Automatic annotation (TrEMBL):
It comes from the Bacteria. It comes from Scrofimicrobium appendicitidis. The lineage of its organism: Bacteria, Bacillati, Actinomycetota, Actinomycetes, Actinomycetales. One of its GO terms (cellular component) is cytosol. This is Glutamine amidotransferase. Residues 52-194 form the Glutamine amidotransferase domain. Keywords: Glutamine amidotransferase.
């Protein structure tokens, strides 16, 4: 059986390794069944998509991808590399699950619109499934309302034609969508344990410390304790659906 591929844009080695481990635990895949493609100085390495059952494109530290927003040269370069990769994925009709900034890029590439009206900055939020979500195989077994970690400055304002909204949150009307039968995207980070992050946040608040602004600590908690959270079922279901 062919492996799956994880595409990561994390520039720091520690964050890259941590993200890969979180995906291993959340998908239930072994290392020989989840290969990693990471950016280097010349971009994303060539990928033979036919060698994989499906592709995960992880969230990115590079936000603000819409025209007219202030972006660095690195942000623009990474965004264009990912756009080209998504073009190849769509042409090859390979199953794909994109998260975070990757969802914004995919939304625009498919003809949707992205804006900064629904930003959510480093927090845990309740995500609610739509009626279509409750009927989708990737959300099978997932609670109708579940906690997930979010951190984004932009989000889908208008879905691409033919896309189906699968989940939403109070501050972000599109938290997950499907396009066709094998292209999925989530605004939240399904590999992170939102429940563990929420418990850590409440622990600090109960102790009288409301400065829960240590993003690295929160994300580290979410990655270290990952695997049993509701959102991990989405990743496992993706593997099951497309194996």
């Amino acid at each position: 059986m062919k492996p799956f591929l994880l595409v990561s844009t994390r520039p720091e080695e520690e964050a890259l390794v941590s993200e890969y481990q979180a995906y291993l635990q959340s998908t239930g895949l072994s290392e020989d069944r989840l290969e990693l493609a990471e950016f280097d100085l010349v971009g994303l390495p060539p990928v033979e998509l036919g060698d994989y059952q499906g592709v995960f494109v992880a969230g990115s530290p590079y936000g603000n991808i819409t025209a007219g927003t202030a972006t660095s040269k690195t942000q623009r370069w990474v965004a264009e590399e990912l756009r080209e990769f998504f073009r190849q994925v769509l042409a090859a009709e390979i199953p794909c699950l994109a998260t975070g900034t990757a969802m914004s890029l995919l939304t625009e590439l498919l003809g949707g619109k992205v804006a900064d009206e629904h930003m959510e900055l480093s927090e845990v939020t309740w995500v609610t499934q739509t009626r279509e979500g409750m009927e989708d195989p990737l959300l099978a077994g997932v609670a109708e309302d579940f906690l997930a970690y979010v951190s984004h400055t932009e989000a889908a304002r208008e879905l691409p034609a033919g896309a189906v909204r699968l989940a939403w949150s109070p501050n972000c009307p599109v938290q997950m969508f499907r396009h066709g039968q094998h292209i999925y995207a989530t605004q939240f980070s399904p590999e992170l344990d939102g429940e563990a992050i929420q418990r850590k946040t409440e622990m600090y608040a109960d102790a009288g410390d409301f400065r829960v602004g240590d993003l690295d600590m929160l994300v580290g908690t979410g990655r270290h304790r990952t695997g049993g959270q509701q959102s991990a079922l989405i990743l496992r279901n993706f593997v099951k659906q497309f194996s």
